[in-house]
Protein backbone atom coordinates (compact mmCIF):
# COMPACT_ATOMS: atom_id res chain seq x y z
CA UNK A 1 0.00 0.00 0.00
CA UNK A 2 1.18 3.48 -0.78
CA UNK A 3 -0.28 6.83 0.23
CA UNK A 4 0.62 10.48 -0.15
CA UNK A 5 -0.26 13.46 2.03
CA UNK A 6 0.19 16.93 0.60
CA UNK A 7 -0.24 19.78 3.08
CA UNK A 8 -1.31 23.21 1.82
CA UNK A 9 -1.62 26.52 3.66
CA UNK A 10 -4.87 27.51 1.99
CA UNK A 11 -8.48 26.33 2.22
CA UNK A 12 -8.64 26.28 -1.60
CA UNK A 13 -7.55 22.92 -2.96
CA UNK A 14 -9.02 20.08 -4.99
CA UNK A 15 -8.27 16.55 -6.10
CA UNK A 16 -8.71 15.76 -9.76
CA UNK A 17 -11.57 13.54 -10.89
CA UNK A 18 -11.17 10.58 -13.25
CA UNK A 19 -11.25 12.97 -16.22
CA UNK A 20 -8.27 14.92 -14.83
CA UNK A 21 -10.30 18.03 -13.94
CA UNK A 22 -10.64 19.73 -10.56
CA UNK A 23 -13.14 22.37 -9.50
CA UNK A 24 -13.02 25.00 -6.77
CA UNK A 25 -16.28 26.64 -5.75
CA UNK A 26 -16.91 29.64 -3.53
CA UNK A 27 -13.99 31.80 -4.64
CA UNK A 28 -14.48 35.56 -4.59
CA UNK A 29 -13.45 37.67 -7.59
CA UNK A 30 -9.75 38.46 -7.64
CA UNK A 31 -6.37 37.16 -8.72
CA UNK A 32 -5.16 33.79 -7.47
CA UNK A 33 -2.18 31.55 -8.06
CA UNK A 34 -2.90 27.99 -9.17
CA UNK A 35 -0.39 25.17 -8.71
CA UNK A 36 -0.37 21.48 -9.43
CA UNK A 37 1.30 18.53 -7.69
CA UNK A 38 1.63 14.87 -8.59
CA UNK A 39 3.86 12.36 -6.76
CA UNK A 40 5.90 11.49 -9.87
CA UNK A 41 6.04 15.04 -11.23
CA UNK A 42 9.29 16.22 -12.80
CA UNK A 43 10.56 19.58 -11.64
CA UNK A 44 9.72 21.88 -8.77
CA UNK A 45 6.13 22.64 -7.71
CA UNK A 46 7.05 26.33 -7.44
CA UNK A 47 7.58 26.39 -11.20
CA UNK A 48 3.99 25.22 -11.86
CA UNK A 49 2.45 28.45 -10.49
CA UNK A 50 0.02 30.13 -12.90
CA UNK A 51 -2.00 33.29 -12.20
CA UNK A 52 -5.78 33.03 -12.50
CA UNK A 53 -8.03 36.10 -12.48
CA UNK A 54 -11.67 35.60 -11.58
CA UNK A 55 -14.29 38.16 -12.58
CA UNK A 56 -17.66 38.38 -10.83
CA UNK A 57 -20.01 35.70 -12.16
CA UNK A 58 -17.45 34.32 -14.62
CA UNK A 59 -15.69 30.98 -14.22
CA UNK A 60 -11.92 30.96 -14.34
CA UNK A 61 -9.97 28.23 -16.03
CA UNK A 62 -6.35 27.10 -16.01
CA UNK A 63 -4.73 24.07 -17.65
CA UNK A 64 -1.53 22.25 -16.71
CA UNK A 65 0.66 19.82 -18.61
CA UNK A 66 2.73 17.73 -16.21
CA UNK A 67 5.76 15.66 -17.12
CA UNK A 68 6.05 12.53 -14.97
CA UNK A 69 9.05 10.51 -13.88
CA UNK A 70 9.08 6.78 -14.61
CA UNK A 71 7.41 4.45 -12.10
CA UNK A 72 10.09 3.43 -9.62
CA UNK A 73 8.34 0.75 -7.55
CA UNK A 74 8.92 -2.87 -8.47
CA UNK A 75 5.73 -4.94 -8.79
CA UNK A 76 4.92 -7.03 -5.75
CA UNK A 77 5.29 -10.78 -5.99
CA UNK A 78 2.07 -12.62 -5.21
CA UNK A 79 1.89 -14.13 -1.73
CA UNK A 80 0.98 -17.77 -1.10
CA UNK A 81 -2.72 -16.97 -0.64
CA UNK A 82 -2.88 -15.18 -4.00
CA UNK A 83 -1.15 -18.13 -5.68
CA UNK A 84 -3.65 -20.43 -3.97
CA UNK A 85 -6.61 -18.43 -5.30
CA UNK A 86 -5.17 -18.42 -8.80
CA UNK A 87 -4.42 -22.14 -8.95
CA UNK A 88 -6.82 -24.06 -6.69
CA UNK A 89 -10.52 -24.31 -6.03
CA UNK A 90 -12.70 -26.14 -3.56
CA UNK A 91 -12.93 -26.49 0.22
CA UNK A 92 -10.41 -29.35 0.44
CA UNK A 93 -7.71 -27.31 -1.32
CA UNK A 94 -8.45 -24.36 0.96
CA UNK A 95 -8.25 -26.56 4.08
CA UNK A 96 -4.89 -27.99 2.97
CA UNK A 97 -3.58 -24.50 2.31
CA UNK A 98 -4.90 -23.16 5.63
CA UNK A 99 -3.43 -26.01 7.67
CA UNK A 100 -0.08 -25.60 5.96
CA UNK A 101 -0.08 -21.88 6.82
CA UNK A 102 -1.35 -22.37 10.41
CA UNK A 103 -0.07 -25.70 11.77
CA UNK A 104 -0.67 -24.61 15.39
CA UNK A 105 -4.48 -24.73 14.86
CA UNK A 106 -4.61 -28.45 13.90
Task: Describe the protein's architecture and organization.
This protein is of the alpha+beta class and 106 residues long. The chain has two helices and two strands. The protein has helices at 80-87, 91-101; strands at residues 30-34, 50-54. The chain has a two-stranded antiparallel ribbon. The two termini are 32 Å apart.
Structural class: alpha+beta
The radius of gyration computed from the alpha-carbon positions, rounded to a whole number of angstroms, is 24 Å
Strand order of the largest sheet: 1-2
Q: Which geometry do the CA atoms define?
A: elongated
Helix content: 10-25%
Order of helices and strands: EEHH
Which short descriptors sum up this protein?
106 residues; alpha+beta; 2 domains; 2 strands
Task: Furnish the topology, listing elements before pairings.
Layout: E1 30-34, E2 50-54, H1 80-87, H2 91-101
Question: Summary?
Answer:
The chain is 18% helix and 9% strand.
Amino acid sequence: MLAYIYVVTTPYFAKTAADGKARLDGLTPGTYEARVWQPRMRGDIEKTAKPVTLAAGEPGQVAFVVSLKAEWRAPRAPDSYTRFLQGSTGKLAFRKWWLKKRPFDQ
